[in-house]
């Protein structure tokens, strides 16, 4: 009888061990993707990306979560409070130098934030659109003097770019204009413009922002450009202050009538745009980042089904003109290497076990 009980005990323990191992294999790693405001194109893209990963992987469970813009992404990634997030070139440069929103951290800023970030892929953020009601007396950005304007959310690189642009126009923050922080993606900025709470708002977009389309459906609007000659001065100013290829800003043209018949912008507008990088923590598991990237780019036809200008995100441009000094995460680098699109100068970002010799 004793031998039978011992045998049963061993069998039960073995069964429980097998169940435990099987359960551990089936258990998914829960990760979070830090997104822009609900309703923005970037949030729509992020939500579809998460949907694809969850559909095709057996190892990850990824959730999109609104947690702010680039500054919030960097700080949350660096402190392990999120796993993936949208970051800009200039934001990383500010973190590296301990400038602007990182001033309080001084020389420790680089180690605390910049050194914790790795790249997954690049995606467009688009032109800075400065939008006002058509009845506004403002003709270009030099007319912002004395006005109340929304320069995107407080935790967004756009705010820094806008302040630099207005400074080139001879306007000092807090002295010559009142800057507030209403999100365009959530619709707060267009709503504030419609009810005259603010005179103008900034909207960064590679196409048409849904919240601005709603504003333009019931209001006549215009988009403001830089004053004559000031756009060139702005890029020269950014190159001198931050260095060429570091701030990530570049010229782009936006057509008149972008938002339809109620968009009374009279001419095509040449302005400033910059791109975002979908980034992660350097300490994220290689396999997790590999799956994150793979199930987006292996299923782009499904990603494009959402429309919302999602065709701007492509494998061909995923690694185009990345900022120097910021590594591609080894998991992402492995995927790009397998696809034959990883530049040779980025082989150093590959996992050591598959890095080509010589």
What can you see in these coordinates?
The protein is of the alpha/beta class. 36% of the residues lie in helices and 20% in strands. It contains twelve helices and ten strands. α6 links the parallel β5 and β6 (178-180). The termini are far apart. Residues 4-25 have low confidence and may be disordered.
Concise overview:
The protein has helices spanning 2-26, 41-56, 70-78, 89-97, 109-112, 157-168, 188-194, 210-218, 230-242, 286-297, 300-303, 330-339; strands at 29-35, 60-66, 84-88, 117-133, 148-150, 178-180, 200-205, 221-224, 250-254, 269-281.
Derived structural class: alpha/beta
Helix and strand string, N-terminal first? HEHEHEHHEEHEHEHEHEEHHH
The gyration radius over C-alpha positions equals: 24 Å
Q: Estimate the mean pLDDT confidence.
A: 90
Alpha carbon gap, first and last residue: 67 Å
Uncertain stretches of 5 or more adjacent residues? 4-25
Count of helical segments?
Answer: 12
Q: Tell me, what's the shape?
A: globular
The portion of residues forming beta strands comes to: 15-25%
Q: What's the number of extended β-strand segments?
A: 10
What multimeric state do the chains show?
single chain
Give the fraction of residues assigned to helices.
25-40%
Largest sheet: 10 strands, mixed
Walk me through the topology.
Elements: H1 2-26, E1 29-35, H2 41-56, E2 60-66, H3 70-78, E3 84-88, H4 89-97, H5 109-112, E4 117-133, E5 148-150, H6 157-168, E6 178-180, H7 188-194, E7 200-205, H8 210-218, E8 221-224, H9 230-242, E9 250-254, E10 269-281, H10 286-297, H11 300-303, H12 330-339
Parallel strand pairs: 1-2, 1-3, 5-6, 5-7
Antiparallel strand pairs: 3-10, 4-7, 4-8, 4-10, 9-10
Helix pairs in contact: 2-10, 10-12
């Amino acid at each position: 009888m004793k031998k039978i009980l011992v045998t049963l005990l061993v069998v039960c323990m073995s069964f429980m061990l097998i169940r435990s191992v099987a359960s551990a294999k089936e258990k998914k790693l829960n990760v979070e993707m830090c997104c822009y405001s609900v309703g923005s194109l970037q949030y729509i893209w992020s939500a579809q990306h998460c949907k694809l990963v969850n559909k095709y992987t057996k190892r990850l469970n990824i959730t999109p979560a609104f947690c702010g813009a680039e500054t919030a992404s960097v700080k949350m990634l660096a402190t392990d409070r999120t796993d993936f997030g949208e970051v800009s070139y200039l934001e990383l440069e500010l973190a590296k130098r301990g400038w602007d929103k990182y001033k309080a951290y001084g020389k420790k800023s680089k180690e605390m934030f910049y050194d914790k970030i790795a790249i997954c892929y690049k995606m467009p953020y688009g032109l800075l659109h400065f939008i006002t009601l058509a009845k506004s007396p403002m003709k270009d950005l030099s007319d912002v003097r004395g006005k109340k304007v929304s320069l995107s959310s407080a935790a967004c690189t756009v705010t820094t770019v806008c302040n630099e642009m207005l400074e080139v126009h001879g306007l000092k923050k807090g002295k010559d204009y009142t800057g507030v922080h209403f999100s365009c993606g959530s619709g707060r900025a267009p709503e504030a413009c419609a009810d005259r709470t603010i005179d103008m708002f900034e909207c960064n977009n590679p196409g048409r922002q849904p919240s601005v389309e709603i504003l333009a459906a019931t209001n006549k609007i215009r988009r403001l450009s830089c004053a004559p000659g000031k756009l060139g001065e702005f890029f020269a100013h950014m190159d001198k202050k931050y260095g060429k290829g570091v701030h990530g800003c570049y010229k782009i043209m936006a057509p008149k009538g972008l938002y339809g018949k109620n968009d009374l912008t009279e001419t095509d507008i040449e302005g400033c745009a910059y791109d975002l990088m979908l980034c992660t923590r350097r300490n994220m598991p290689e396999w997790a980042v590999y799956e994150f990237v793979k199930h987006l780019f292996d299923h782009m036809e499904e990603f494009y089904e959402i429309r919302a200008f999602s065709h701007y995100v492509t494998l061909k441009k995923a690694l185009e003109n990345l900022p120097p000094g910021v590594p591609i995460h080894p998991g992402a680098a492995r995927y790009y290497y397998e696809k034959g699109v990883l530049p040779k100068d980025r082989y150093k970002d590959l996992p050591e076990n598959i890095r080509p010799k010589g």
